[in-house]
Amino acid sequence: MTVKELYAYIEQKAPRALSAEWDNDGLACCVNRDRQIERVLVALDATEQVVQKAVEGHYDVLLTHHPLLFRGIKELTPEKPLPRKLLTLVLGRVAAMSFHTRLDAAEGGVNDVLCQLFGLTNIEKAGPEGEEMARVGTLPQVVSAQEFAQTVCEKLNTSAVSLIGERKTVKRIMVLGGEGADFVSVAAARPDVDLFLAGRIGYHRMLDAAEEGIALIEAGHFATERPVCDTLAAWVRQAVPTATVDVYANATIQLVTRNKQ
Questions:
Q1: DSSP character for 30?
Q2: Alpha helices of 25-120 — where are they, by DSSP H?
Q3: Which of 28, 195, 196, 229 could pair covalently with 215 via S-S, beta carbons 3.0-4.6 A apart?
Q4: Higher confidence at residue 254 or residue 154?
Q5: Cα–Cα–Cα angle for 65, 66, 68, nearest 5°?
């Protein structure tokens, strides 16, 4: 399978039509679209460390969730980080592609993966008009907000989450990987939603929403979106069974916990 064929294969699962208007994902960097794929590196972000690993590991494709290019560049020199990453990829002949908000909205994407992790059933899409990326689902049993927060830590392999709202009965929840502040009002307006979980909501937005009677959990941008990398890797393995597919699992931003004396 070639680079352009792999891109087309994943695009069938996460179509461009699902992308937010402001998004800029896709095939961002490619020297040869007809290059045969033997090695693929999957990561959440195209950081310099990830780009270097892709080149040094002789990968043909770097596949990420977050786009390499969000806005235009004015120069292609090694003095600044973004142009330097592009030059590194081009000189290393590594194609870079990403699937961002369309992967949030797509079936089997970021938010469906979260639903699977938490064992949610009776799933439905939710969000502002035109951006129904979030999912609402039912937990297997009624728990408290505190109990569910512990489950989130376990399932997302994170040491801590932020919780507000002391709800004793949580059954129906809304989930959204990544940035969720714009979806809080949607969750709070639904009488059937007991708790809203997102990667990042914001301190003041959480305070305001809690006063509307809903519990909220901020679980971390990386933690809520990292699981979809395994899904992307599985899609690549389905498309190219003979390829070597690796997932870069290191946290982009480290969570440092206090040392107990």
A1: -
A2: 48-56, 81-91, 101-105, 110-118
A3: 195
A4: 154
A5: 120
pLDDT digits (tens, 9 = 90+) for 194-237: 999 999 999 999 999 888 889 999 999 999 999 999 999 999 99
Q: Are 28 and 65 in contact (CB under 8 A)?
A: no
Which CATH fold would you assign to the domain 3-102? 3.40.1390
Please report, for the chain, the start and end positions of each structural domain, with discontinuous segments joined by +.
3-102, 107-224
**Which spans in the chain are helix H?**
3-13, 48-56, 81-91, 101-105, 110-118, 145-155, 184-188, 203-210, 221-225, 228-239
- Do 133 and 178 touch, CB atoms closer than 8 A? no
107-224 matches 3-102 in CATH topology: yes
Distance CA 53, CA 85 (A): 12
CA distance 65 to 227: 11
Confidence of residue 261 (pLDDT cuts 50, 70, 90): low
The CATH label, of 2.40.30.170, 3.40.1390.30, 2.60.120.10, 3.40.228.10, for the domain at 107-224 is 3.40.1390.30
CA distance 76 to 80: 9
For residue 4, count other CB atoms closer than 10 A to its CB. 16
> Contact, 16 vs 102, CB < 8 A?
yes
Q: How many residues does the chain have?
A: 261
pTM here is 0.93
Give the SS3 label for residue 23: coil
